[in-house]
Task: structure prediction
Amino acid sequence: MLYHLFTYLNEMDVPGTGVFQYLSFRAAMAIITSLIVTLVFGKRLINILRAKQAGETVRDLGLEGQKEKEGTPTMGGLIILAAILIPTLLFAKLDNIYTITMIITTVGLGAIGFIDDYIKVFKKNKKGLAGKFKVVGQVGIGIVVACLLFFNDNVTVKEKVEVQYIDGFKDKIGENLIGVTEVFKKDEPTVLDYYWVEHHSSKTTVPFIKNNEFDYKWLVPFGDDESKSKWAWLIFVPIVIVIVTAVSNGANLTDGIDGLATGTSAIAGVTLLIFAYISGNIIFSGYLNVMHIPNTGELVIFMSAFVGACIGFLWFNAFPAQVFMGDTGSLAIGGIIAVFAIAIRKELLIPVICGIFLIENVSVMMQVAWFKYTKKKYGEGRRIFLMSPLHHHYQKKGMHEAKIVARFWIVGIMFAVISIVTLKLR
Result:
């Protein structure tokens, strides 16, 4: 909103209003605003939740310090949602397709989580929203996001095309130069050896591989190249659904001890922010030879608000937690990370960026699968870990949860560094 207002004032030559054209300024303002919203709105919401007796019902799992958490307000994810949406609405371009997609994701998954928390807290139903309805909601958001990112005309990429030499001259012809041919002398120093072509594409990037682009249309089993491009959505949409569902559930599983999901999400957010800035900047993307995605610079504003919201929420969520985010927050932050990565064509890097989420997910799957297998084979179920997800295993071993969180953050930072290194390591 403020961006559009100040853009209008800048066109009217009002002094100082041009500062809103700078991405770095708006990103900084988004972080500061999200922190202020979190700290101011957060305390008030916690008091409201306490007054409403919206406390967490803790199951007795035999973990140290567990019973002390009984009655701690939940649904604190509302703080995170407010701290993301308010700065985004104030400082981002609201007509940008990527901004619209992220707002839909935040509101949609936040709503699913809120309904789940509301049923648990106010309807006194420990199971919350039935699993099948939760999955239907996640699939629905996945379909909407996939359709927006695949079919919208404003979702494009720019690719370098080498200029061809013809009899000692450069012949520059491209789709974006319809009907126009520019011929340059070969020794002309001001002319580059390439030009940029902007077009719709179903390509993504594969980490750690040179010439690391993969096109979803290659998986379409029928038709010529043009037909495959047209029908690539048949592959793209299911993949988006799986990613959104898996990562949002991964964040939900990670949200088991104070500050763990919030901190690891902030680390992943910073990593994605760097990728978004590079992908949206034609100079940096050209230098690093990564896919240039026009208009994704605006995602920097959104992710700045996201990181600020997570850090601000830690003010109340760090051990000992004054509030829990609940499914309202965990489903939303997981879905945000997933959709953001898809938007900047880094979805295949999610297992590294969200390495903590993946480890937590895999630990649960291993535990359940091994228990079922051994029960069938030996008549009694056996476990790999003392308890899953993995952070509970370390709690059972007597490690303090603050130390567990700190060590998981360190591992998360390691994953973040590995992710960033993929910009050059191929």
